[in-house]
Design a protein that fits this description.
heterodimer; A: about 1100 residues; alpha/beta; Rossmann fold; D-amino Acid Aminotransferase, Chain A, domain 1; Dna Ligase, domain 1; 7 domains; seven-stranded antiparallel beta sheet; 37 helices; about 35% helix; globular; B: about 350 residues; Glucose Oxidase, domain 1; seven-stranded mixed β-barrel
Chain lengths: ~1100, ~350
């Protein structure tokens, strides 16, 4: 009898493994609890919902690796372990533990799919052999352990070939090689990450189709969803635009592949959930029946590409696409429940043992932020680069894809966005797969490029291309009817048609020379408003008690009645991206759930399928919809909701405050005018001056001359940025006049319309965050935390310590006083966050955000006070005043980077954010907590050997002590010339290695490539990687990049490097305590 | 051209035509399958019905060659979709759905809110309806007439003479009440010889012997198939192995003392879960029926039960080789999970 289950999470969000595992883990916990089973969760990702008090029975914020998990097993003595809800991280960890015999030793039952089956599905050769046995085709493929062997195979298969790394998440380091040179580059990179690579036949322009399969212990097996990629094979499914259900498959193809996926799942003995990916030839050569089959069987030419014997990104998407809670059902199945005993959670009257019928279609588009990584390659392919995704629901492809483009929140208002200079550029972006391809295709169609030609170049099925053409044609018709000049207004039918094809009011307005609001009021006057439809898993066949909704213009009725004044809307975060991620999902879910305490019904709006907020059992009503002014207003007006909460979903909903307020929407929280006061740099600066609060010197400039003059006056370095920033977009540090000039020339416009802000950058200043909740201008709860890195590293990339150990008493008091003053001055009502800078004991305010910040869940969890709950109390005027005691523990939040995924990106900490996730761990000291956090983000020191290159005298002096410590710890040290000389003069013996330009071998890169070191500390003189210089591939860049490309731990910041060395000095791995969150908080 | 869909209850919905433009009347039903419109349209069980596809986007992959159809023509009386796609993309496509409908003189109407129609049918039950272009016509209830005349073969035909596999010695009489080609393909593929006979054919007059009888699927009320019921009664008396499929299942029940009744709105789709009562296994099945077995005939026990609404999905005799399924083991469209029914039946011969 299972009473206690150990559940492994997936750790920090990173490219290839993101929020979907918060969703799957959370559902598993719920499913286990219903059976009366306790869940012990290990997950260092503190921003997740699964690591909340209401979820798991016990939480360990610890690394998910075999050493730590074994310790947790010893301590907790669980009956069983669940490996399939924490992505590849949990699965790999589980396989290691299995191989080490840990489960056997401590009598822990592995739930669900047997580990042997997982091993088969993960080892490419074993998998191919297995499939051959059951007569399922896989692409001709060979596993090799060296590039030499690989090349031989590649020649045999004939180029182009596909290279894949074994045991890697999200297709990391795989790619298509067209030439032998390309082959060597890709194969080397893949072998640096994986002991094994696969060389495969390349299937040009095959369709990519996926099935999500569940199977129980009794061999009941169903496919819950099939999906078709818009992009052909060769673009990773995580990088592809995906539709569900498939659109271009005949009944035979659909069910043939369905059958194959079931056969595979059965043969592997999967119990729980499994994803099967196929390549399907759109033009099979043989037209005769396949052998042994009956007459009149259509031709089919297919291959199995991959099987994931666990919950995956695709299964999260399938769950949201169908309303079938895959993770929840999988959790029940691995406990041994039959599929036939599980009720369909949506209808509550039908069974889980069925296959959902959709009467809509969903479109998923990935969200990339490649441009935020200096130097990163824009081209996408068989490994993942995207950082998030959106899903849109519509009754037609046109409606859904246009919604999806807006959901991305990248400033486009539909699929027609001509941001291309000329036809040549359009063709370029059609031919090469990049995040812009979809827009290039529509731009090309608009220019009259032939559908056949676009198909030949892209392999995107003509069905999709014709749907896009339908949108383009409708826009052309609209423009020409206006162009005729007779009437600048639209006919009702034409407007309705445009809305049905997914055009936004704003886009229509642009074409007609009208404002969005004018189009809106015309629309409402003519009764053109969207219908509210439910997702019921059965296409309307049974009356379902579902609260999972979307809107469409293809309706003449609503499936639900408005909630009315008892309803409060909560806007979620939209797609995960650099700077906005699972932390905002935590905040919105917690706020939505706390509304219950005030007998209010929550109406959540979000469009991100990797979230928990889009689980329909987290709110009273869930709209899987756009977070645009238009759609939010539509829902508000339909529901007749009493108010709306914009301050807990990050910057996307917060940006709507002024417009919604002007439109008459009642906003719960700080007044829109005051939000503007905090966000408008000029107004905020005046306010600070009025209140006598210090701020770094800054000024707006509309011309270069006065900008240069100002910079000279305040002294370099200076920080330059546009106003209204999100995660440091286009922000930069400039160290001298030349850099400032060159940056402005390259990256920003400077003119009357686009002023540029330049502020004095204070070197070696400390940064401190205050998170708080206020009610009616009165501070109710707050907590201070400090950055380890000095100001200049984006707060999202900073290592954050709670309590703020490095803040002096006086400064702390001053910060609270400032917070109280600002709270009062802006009548803050709800959550806020202030970023302070401390230099020479003076406290400066850098920024005030009148919304829940990124650190909200971290602060809530380390203080034990749920700031989201206090936020709701504040909205209802019922917030208590909290006095948080200084804790007996320390928690450290560390960033997770995904540079390895982004070829060419410079992995250096800068004013612009580049981390994709975070972890936080507890300890008795900051050092202990930091070391746990670092291990959680993947730090591994397999040998005591480090490369140190330190730029600048000051850095050298300040880091000397740490180097001594490393030496005393037994580290073998390699250093480049200057560092070597300096250290030897201080009595530290190091091995000299030459720089790349010195043309002597071995150089720094050789040392890294040969894995002679397991740690690289590269401190450059300037706090910020030089944008101009990095184009020339400086040694610093090459060293950093080589470290990342060879999976070697890299430190680029002085302060975090020092803290790390101190931690190493104080703690060995086995000294790190295995204590649960509850034990720390006690 | 615009047309109107008019329901018996007075509901009138305007739509755009994409098929043949001539008024037609029938019974309005919906199907929830997401693929397989060529198979559905040519399924004789739809005879006399106006079909609403709940999946809103139809026409995507055009229409394949006739040899892939489920019968030689379209059987629905009319088609209602939400979005019709006139630019199909598929290597098998020979024509667009619209041109096919026009060729076969079947009206098709695009209306926006097919979900509304579905909910209406679900709540009020399947009801009579008509697609009206210029000329108004009377409502027509296909369940009140014998549709067998329209869907059954006129003369016997033999299929599967090249015996290849394990059941090669088997000869099956297939009573065609509106048979789907894939039933025949399934049998032939297993090596059986199939003699397809009209619904009212006297099978005992056949010169050649046979090992078993399959009563096919088909449209309408099973009670209309009196001749077939009589044939089955005789076969039962002779203890010849029998498999009934869909309408054939109901006919078997009626022939052996069971009862049938009309469902409120029937089962039409490809995702109906059926539980095998002998071992609790669940299968996802394709269905297309408006009638069902009520009273289980004496000597029989329920074989399958619908997991959603607990209606009967098949019966099996306690000791004689008589069995039937309400769903479509031949799929087409739909999942192929229950093709083993054919094996099971052939094994009893």
């Amino acid at each position: 009898m299972i009473k206690k289950i150990l559940l492994l999470g997936s750790g920090a969000l990173k490219i290839g493994q993101a929020g979907e595992f918060d969703y799957s883990g959370s559902q598993a916990i719920k499913a286990f609890r219903e059976e009366g089973i306790k869940t012990i969760l290990v997950n260092p990702n503190i921003a997740t919902i699964q690591t909340s008090k209401a979820m798991a029975d016990k939480v360990y914020f610890l690394p998910i690796n075999p050493e730590f998990i074994e310790q947790v097993i010893i301590k907790e003595n669980p009956d069983a372990i669940a490996l399939s809800f924490g992505g590849q991280t949990a699965l790999n960890c589980g396989m290691d533990l299995y191989k080490k015999g840990v489960f056997k030793k401590y009598h822990v039952q592995v739930l669900g799919t047997p580990v042997s089956a997982i091993v088969t599905s993960e080892d490419r050769q074993l998998f191919a052999d297995h499939l051959k046995k059951i007569n399922v085709s896989t692409p001709a493929s060979h596993a090799v352990n060296s590039t030499k062997e690989g090349l031989k195979i590649a020649r045999k298969l004939k180029l182009p070939v596909m290279i894949r790394a074994g045991f890697a998440l999200g297709g990391q380091k795989s790619g298509v090689a067209h030439t032998e040179k390309e082959f060597m580059t890709i194969a080397e990179a893949a072998l640096a990450f994986s002991p094994q690579i696969l060389v495969e036949k390349y299937l040009h322009h095959y369709k990519e189709i996926e099935y999500e399969v569940v199977r129980d212990n009794f061999d009941n097996c169903v496919t819950v969803c099939n999906m078709e990629n818009f992009d052909p094979l060769g673009i990773h499914t995580g990088e592809s635009i995906v539709v569900a259900p498939s659109q271009t498959l005949t009944n035979y193809e659909y069910h043939f592949l369905r059958q194959k996926s079931i056969e595979i799942v059965r043969s592997l003995g999967i119990v729980g959930e499994c994803n099967v990916q196929f390549a399907l030839n759109p033009h099979p050569e043989s037209t005769g029946p396949i052998s042994g089959s009956f007459p009149s069987t259509p031709a089919i030419d297919y291959y199995v590409i991959e099987v994931n014997a666990r919950l995956s990104r695709s299964s999260a998407l399938a769950s949201k696409a169908t309303g079938y809670p895959l993770a929840y059902v999988a959790a029940k199945l691995i406990l041994g429940k039959p599929l036939t005993r599980i009720i369909n959670q949506i209808t509550r009257v039908t069974q889980a043992a069925f296959e959902p019928a959709l009467d809509y279609l969903v479109v998923k588009i990935p969200r990339w932020d490649i441009e935020k990584f200096r130097g990163a390659e824009e081209v996408i392919g068989s490994s993942m680069k995207s950082v998030g995704e959106v899903m849109a629901i519509g009754r037609t492809f046109e409606e859904a894809i246009q919604k999806a483009t807006r959901m991305l929140d990248i400033g486009v208002h539909g699929v027609i966005e001509n941001r291309f200079a000329n036809e040549k550029e359009i063709w370029h972006y059609i031919k090469s797969a990049t995040p812009r391809r979809l827009f290039a295709i529509t731009a090309g169609i608009k220019k009259g490029f032939s559908i056949d030609k676009i198909y030949q170049e892209t392999g995107v099925d003509k069905w999709f291309l014709y749907r896009l053409k339908n949108i383009v044609d409708a826009e052309k018709e609209m423009v020409s009817s206006v162009g005729n000049g007779r009437d600048r207004s639209l006919q009702r039918d034409q407007l309705l048609n445009l809305k049905r094809l997914g055009f936004s009011d704003r886009r229509i307005g642009e074409a007609l020379g009208k404002t969005e609001l004018e189009v809106r009021s015309f629309r409402i006057k003519n009764k053109i408003t969207p219908s509210v439809f439910a997702i019921d898993t059965l296409a309307g066949e049974f009356p379902a008690k579902t609260n999972y909704l979307y809107t469409t213009y293809w309706g003449s009725h609503h499936d639900v009645k408005p909630i009315g004044q008892g309803g409060i809307m909560v806007l979620g975060s939209g797609p995960y991206r650099i700077g906005s991620s699972v932390e905002f999902d935590w905040s919105s879910v917690n706020v939505a759930q706390n509304l219950k305490r005030y007998k209010k019904q929550s109406i959540v709006v979000n469009c991100n399928p990797e979230t928990v907020s889009t689980d329909y059992d987290m709110s009273d009503r869930l709209y899987f919809e756009e977070l645009t002014f238009e759609r939010v207003s539509d829902i508000y007006e339909f529901e007749k909701a009493s108010s709306i909460i914009l301050s807990v979903g990050g910057q996307t909903p917060n940006n709507l405050s002024t417009r919604l307020n002007n439109y008459g929407v009642k906003i719960l929280g700080t007044k829109a005018g005051n939000i503007d006061l905090a966000e408008n740099r000029n107004k905020f600066s005046d306010l600070l001056d009025r209140l006598g609060i210090l701020q770094p010197l800054w000024k707006n400039f509309t011309d270069m001359g006065s900008a240069l003059k100002f910079a000279k006056e305040v002294g370099y370095p200076v920080l330059i940025r546009p106003s209204y920033v999100l995660s440091g977009l286009a922000m930069n540090l400039c160290y001298d006049e030349a850099e400032l000039k060159s940056f402005v020339k390259r990256a920003v416009e400077i003119n009357k319309k686009h002023p540029v802000t330049i502020s004095k950058y204070m070197t070696n200043a400390r940064e401190v965050e205050l998170d708080g909740v206020a009610q009616g201008g009165k501070l109710k709860v707050y907590a201070l935390s400090n950055h380890v890195e000095h100001a200049g590293v984006h707060s999202g990339d900073a290592t954050i310590v709670y309590p703020a150990e490095r803040v002096r008493y006086y400064s702390g008091v001053k910060m609270v006083e400032i917070a109280q003053n600002l709270t009062k001055a802006l009548s803050i009502n709800g959550p806020f966050n202030i970023q302070y800078m401390v230099k020479d004991n003076k406290v400066y305010v850098i920024e005030l955000n009148l919304r829940a910040s990124r650190t909200f869940p971290f602060i809530s969890k380390v203080t034990g006070v749920n700031f989201a709950a206090v936020t709701v109390d504040a909205f209802f005027g019922k917030a208590k005043e909290y006095q948080i005691d200084y804790p007996a523990y320390v928690a450290v939040k560390a960033p997770q980077f995904s540079f390895a995924r982004l070829e060419g990106a410079d992995p250096v900490l800068r004013v612009e954010m580049s981390s994709t996730g975070e972890v936080a761990c507890f300890g008795d000291t900051a050092e202990e907590a930091y070391l746990k956090s670092l291990i959680s983000t993947g730090l591994s020191l397999d040998k005591k050997s480090a490369l140190v290159t330190i730029g600048g005298e000051e850095n050298k002096l300040r880091f000397a002590e740490s180097i001594w410590k490393l030496k005393n710890l037994g580290f073998e040290l390699y250093a480049t010339n200057h560092t070597h000389k300096f250290l030897n003069s201080k009595g530290v013996r190091t091995k000299l290695v030459s720089k790349v330009y010195e043309r002597r071998r071995p150089n720094v890169i050789d040392i890294i490539e040969q894995k002679k070191v397991s740690l690289v500390i590269n401190l450059s003189e300037k706090g910020d990687g030089n944008p101009v210089a990095s184009e020339f591939k400086t040694d610093g860049y090459l060293i950093r990049r080589a470290a990342i490309d060879h999976n070697i731990s890299l430190f680029t910041d002085l302060n975090s490097s020092r803290l790390f060395v101190n931690a190493l000095e104080k703690y060995r791995i086995k000294d790190l305590k295995i204590k649960s969150w509850e034990e720390y908080l006690e | 051209m615009l047309g109107n869909l008019i329901l018996k209850d007075g509901t009138k919905i305007k739509g755009r035509s994409f098929g043949h433009e001539e008024s037609v009347a029938g019974e309005l039903v919906f199907s929830t399958g997401m693929t397989g419109y060529p198979e559905s349209l040519t399924d004789p069980s739809y005879e006399g019905q106006i079909l609403v596809t709940t999946y809103p986007i139809i026409g995507n992959y055009g229409v394949p060659e006739k040899k892939y159809w489920e019968s030689s023509r379209i059987h629905i009386s009319g088609l209602i979709v939400s979005q019709y796609v006139d630019t199909p993309s598929h290597f098998q496509s020979k024509k667009t759905l619209s041109s096919w409908l026009k060729e076969e003189k079947i009206p098709g109407l695009i209306i926006d809110d097919t979900r509304f129609l579905t909910q209406k049918i679900r709540d009020q039950g399947a009801q009579l309806a008509k697609i009206v272009f210029k000329k108004n016509i009377e409502f027509f209830d296909p369940n009140l007439v014998n549709l067998m005349e329209k869907v059954s073969v006129k003369t016997t035909r033999k299929v599967g003479l090249r015996a290849i596999e394990q059941y090669k010695k088997m000869s099956i009489v297939l009573i065609d009440c509106g048979v789907k080609e894939n039933i025949i393909r399934n049998l032939v593929n297993r090596g059986a010889q199939v003699i397809v006979v009209p619904w009212d054919f006297d099978i005992f007059s056949l010169k050649e012997g046979f090992d078993g009888i399959i009563i096919s699927n088909g449209p309408g009320d099973p009670k209309m198939c009196r001749a077939t019921i009589e044939t089955v009664k005789q076969a039962v008396a002779k203890k010849i192995p029998i498999l009934g499929i869909c309408l054939g299942s109901q006919i078997l029940a009626l022939a052996t003392g069971g009862e049938t009744y009309k469902l409120k709105f029937g089962h039409r789709g490809q995702n109906q879960p059926c539980i095998d009562q002998t071992n609790n296994r669940c299968y996802v099945t394709t269905q297309n029926h408006g009638f069902a077995i009520g009273k289980i005939p004496p000597g029989f026990k329920p074989w399958f039960v619908n997991a959603n609404d607990k209606t009967n999905e098949g019966i099996i005799h306690n000791n004689l080789p008589f069995m039937s399924v309400q769903f479509h083991p031949e799929a087409c469209p739909g999942p192929m999970d229950t093709e083993w029914i054919f094996d099971k039946f052939l094994q009893t011969l």
